[in-house]
Structure formats: structure tokens, C-alpha cells
Design brief:
Order of helices and strands: HHEEEEHEEHHHEEEEEHH
Structural class: alpha+beta
CATH topology of the largest domain: Aspartate Aminotransferase, domain 1
CATH architecture of the largest domain: Alpha-Beta Complex
Distance between the termini: 34 Å
Helix content: 40-55%
Shape: globular
Number of strands: 11
Number of helices: 8
Radius of gyration: 20 Å
């Protein structure tokens, strides 16, 4: 893999792409957009120091190397498209697209959509096997969003994507009648929406140890984050990510896995 002079691990896909030469960056950005278009509900994050996309489990990964871009649609994605990828070098869970050739975006789109379908089928089968008609967490969130005014939904969806992309360790569910996020313990939840105000309640007690201009309120065990709109939230994406990652790190430090 082509690496920068810095040894510090990347934490966002933006940072990952910036490591590479401009010509490679262009290919990676286009690949990123194609994946997002094929799986709009997917969470984008960094996993194993590669861009990764999750929806009801792992969808795909990609990574750039000296002479090719590795695309990882898991074993099922490779098996389903063996004929289409026969002209490329491939293995059980990966296919290599040479850097000196155009990326096959139509094929990549089909592979991503296939992975979304497989994960959805797997999740439904799991629910059915459990003998329960109750909605899973992902379905509950989707149901909540579908009931919102389209304008409000667009605002909340934008902030939701920022939160979900902050860490692959984060889990999402509906709690206190709103999308809520947790890792071992509850971390933050959307507050009631009002015009010109998006509210996040960061209710993990470790938040009081974090110094950030985004965090307001002098509460004993929580802080508030407010934005006028999704555009303002996007401007503070890195700081939101830093706050969430700091809480997760403190949680692991004080409650290590045994």
C-alpha cells in the first residue's frame, strides 16, 4: 500500500484518500461516491486501516496499493460475480482493479447492491429464526425516520451519518423516542427537533472530562450539542467524531473487555 510519511493511523476516509497521489485520489473519490450511491443507508468508517461500509453488517472495503485498488465485497460478493471478475486477479474475498485501467463502476455498483441484499436477507432470516415479529434496531430507526417531515428527516439524516461514521463500534437504536447511540453504555441521543435547532444530548458521564467548544451546559453527567442546521453540523464533523471516539476510548480504559 502506498503510505504517507506519517505513521499516525488514519481515522477518516477523507484522511485515507489524502495519503495518495492526486491521480489515485480521483479514482478513490469516484469509487467512494459509487459505493455510497449503491448503498445510501450504509455507514462509512475506517476498519483495519481501510475505508469500510456497513449496513446490517459488513458490506465492502477498499484499499489502494502501488499498482491496483483492492475491492473487498466479502466471499459472497466474489462468488456471485466470478464470471464478471474473471478478467481481473481475484481471491476468495477480494478483487484487484489495476490503477492503469478504468474502474468497472457498473460492476462495483452491482456488487455493492448484492451485498446490501444479502445482509438484508440475513437480518430478516435471523429475526424470523428468533420467532419474533418485533422490529430489529435498524428497522425501528428506519420506521422513525419514515414518519418525519421530509425536511426534518434530511436534517437528522445528515447528522446521523456523521455520528455513525465516527466509529464502527457505535450501535444505533431508538431510545427515549429518538435515534440513540451506544457502546457498552449509552453515549448520545437526538433531542427534540425544533426549527433552526438540531439538538444532541451527550449523556455519557465521561463527557464532562472532554474539553470542546461544541459541548454546552453545566450538568453533572451530560452536555448538549446544538446546530442551526445540517450544514453547520458538517462543519464540525471532525469535532463530533473526536468527542465520540474520546468517550469510547475512556469506556474501554475504565471497562476493558475481560
Amino acid at each position: 500500500m502506498i503510505k504517507s510519511d506519517k505513521t499516525k493511523p488514519v481515522t477518516t476516509v477523507d484522511d485515507y484518500i489524502k495519503v495518495f497521489p492526486v491521480a489515485v485520489q480521483t479514482k478513490l473519490e469516484k469509487l467512494r461516491k459509487v459505493i455510497k450511491a449503491a448503498a445510501p443507508e450504509a455507514t462509512e468508517t475506517i476498519s483495519y486501516q481501510m475505508p469500510a461500509y456497513h449496513y446490517l453488517g459488513v458490506l465492502v472495503y477498499f484499499a489502494a496499493y502501488k499498482n491496483h485498488i483492492g475491492f473487498y465485497p466479502t466471499g459472497s460478493g466474489i462468488e456471485a460475480f466470478q464470471k464478471e471478475i474473471s478478467g481481473y486477479k481475484w481471491s476468495k474475498g477480494a478483487v484487484q482493479f489495476p490503477l492503469d485501467q478504468p474502474l468497472p463502476f457498473d460492476l462495483i455498483t452491482k456488487m455493492v447492491k448484492f451485498r446490501v441484499k444479502k445482509n438484508s436477507e440475513k437480518a430478516k432470516a435471523k429475526t424470523k429464526k428468533q420467532g419474533s415479529t418485533k422490529l430489529n434496531d435498524a428497522d425501528k430507526v428506519k420506521s422513525y425516520l419514515n414518519k418525519l417531515n421530509p425536511t426534518v428527516r434530511a436534517e437528522i439524516e445528515a447528522v446521523r451519518r456523521i455520528i455513525k461514521a465516527s466509529s464502527s463500534e457505535l450501535n444505533e437504536r431508538i431510545k427515549w423516542n429518538a435515534p440513540s447511540y451506544f457502546y457498552k453504555e449509552d453515549i448520545l441521543t437526538f433531542g427534540p427537533y425544533k426549527k433552526d435547532r438540531l439538538l444532541l444530548v451527550v449523556h455519557h458521564p465521561y463527557v464532562v472530562k472532554i474539553n470542546s467548544k461544541l459541548l454546552t451546559g453545566d450538568y453533572k453527567d451530560r452536555r448538549l450539542i446544538t446546530f442551526k442546521n445540517k450544514a453547520e453540523a458538517e462543519l464540525h464533523k471532525k469535532e463530533i467524531t473526536r468527542i465520540i471516539k474520546a468517550i469510547i476510548k475512556m469506556t474501554d480504559t475504565n471497562h476493558p473487555v475481560k
